[in-house]
């Protein structure tokens, strides 16, 4: 039994490593010199006299974090779920699935969560 768990963990780590190293579908690759120059000119001309524009920084940070958080949460939940199922703990397995689904809903569709919360608040208050 211990050998099977060790083999499973090794295969999982290998697949996770291959997935992290593999290029994403539709990835544009490194910037060319013309693209980099265009990006700098766009940034300097975006207002604020070239001093930087921080309007919408929270939205951009949220987009960046949700782009990374979804795969990390999915992999983490998958590893926890496999461990819970291997120990035959159904309660923990159901809890992991429910918490993961709630987390993914918050990350992938925050506007629907916001409208749902506002609907509940309007009903209660």
List keywords for this structure.
125 residues, mainly alpha, flat, 0% strand, 77% helix
Number of strands: 0
List the helices and strands in order.
HHHHH
Share of residues in strands: under 5%
| Overall helicity | over 70%
Parts with pLDDT < 50 across at least 5 consecutive residues = none
Helix tally equals 5
Principal-axis shape equals flat
> Whole-number average pLDDT?
78
Structural class: mainly alpha
The profile of the biggest β sheet is:
none
N-to-C CA distance: 56 Å
Radius of gyration over C-alpha positions, nearest whole angstrom: 21 Å
Structural summary, described in words:
With 125 residues, the protein is mainly alpha-helical. The protein contains five helices and no strands. It has helices at 2-21, 33-44, 57-86, 90-108, 110-124. The chain is flat. The relative contact order is 0.06.
Describe the structure concisely for a colleague.
The protein is mainly α.
SSE layout:
Layout: H1 2-21, H2 33-44, H3 57-86, H4 90-108, H5 110-124
Helix pairs in contact: 3-4
